[in-house]
Specification:
This protein is an alpha+beta fold and 94 residues long. The chain has a single domain, classed as Herpes Virus-1, CATH 3.30.40. The protein has 3 helices and 3 strands, in the order ααβββα.
Length: 94
């Protein structure tokens, strides 16, 4: 596969290999220790870099130890299903 273009069969094989990889995801106990904050005026011009939507009044955000913030649901899904690192700086949460 290194010296040729990928075929659809190659792509399917890579997808199957990826499905076998055990992802490191966050424990819900650790997730509960992350600070939850309410959107305030200073957040209204910012957007969640996971879903790319602007923060709106009444929404809740999660503050990571690296000080990045995300919509509560976006970051919880990301940390539970994909990684234990901040999506912006790749710093580990644990």
């Amino acid at each position: 596969m290194q010296n040729r273009d990928l075929s659809p069969e190659d792509y399917e094989m890579l997808l199957r290999l990826d499905e076998r990889v055990q992802r490191k995801t966050i424990n819900t106990n650790v997730l509960d220790t992350l600070e939850t904050i309410d959107v305030n005026d200073k957040h209204l011009d910012d957007q969640c870099t996971i879903c790319m939507e602007k923060y709106q009044d009444g929404q809740q955000l999660k503050l990571l130890p690296c000080t990045h913030i995300f919509h509560l649901n976006c970051i919880e899904t990301y940390l539970k299903e994909f990684s234990i690192q901040c999506p912006l700086d790749n710093l580990p949460l644990v």
